[in-house]
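Slide 14.
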Amino acid sequence: MTLPPVVHAAWLAEHAGEEDVLIADVRGPNAHTRGHIAGSIPLMIGTPGQFSTPELREAFAAEAALRLRRHGVTGGERLVLYDGGDCTNAAAAMQVAELGGHPRVAVLAGGLAGWPGETEAGVVEIEKSRAELVPRPEAVVGWWEVSDGPSDALILDVRREDEFAGKGGYPCDPRQGHIPGARNVEVSTLFAAPGVPKPADEVRTAVGAPEETGVITYCHSGSRSGLALIALRAAGYDARNYFGSWHEWSRHDELPAER
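Slide 15: predicted structure.
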């Protein structure tokens, strides 16, 4: 029942026929109908949000569990997610599945673009599941946990250097800069190709922290930092994403910022 956080095409080709492996396409039902990895289902469960309170995060996690059940997901399978190739959407879906309580979720490196095997076309019917998934709101990080979180957690800002320094950024943000104490590692430095993480030792060198370090990622709005999770977890880090990221943090005047 083991499942690496990131699987490659060779792994999936070897295990795709196993009863407990569920392959899910997060590109959307129309794209799935046009062509998908054989045996996969379409899985549309959304993306995490900017949870301003623990209660909102708990409510979304409960809804995520329902969305999984509506797609026939039980939580007992090994769930492998894929998108078109860069893994940004697969990473977002991974976080929602984890919020919904799924304990074994992986992302296919390189997505459909890197799949050398057969594809199929046509509609795949899905039967709802009656399984009781236990939501895990703590699967993603809220701003209050970054502000009051454990001192031994590494806060990793995966934006560009100019964004981190407060010299660039988005005009929609009332403040520019970064979370105090954060370390800047631009997300592209963690990947060898779109959706394909660099070898674990190279990722750990870039991060500059031992494998046992807990990591909280953030970017501007949660997408790049969600993508970074794939490379970090493949390198052995216990990493979670602060999905609200700088877009949310910069709006809390009571929260500190550095430039």
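Speaker note: The mean pLDDT is 96.
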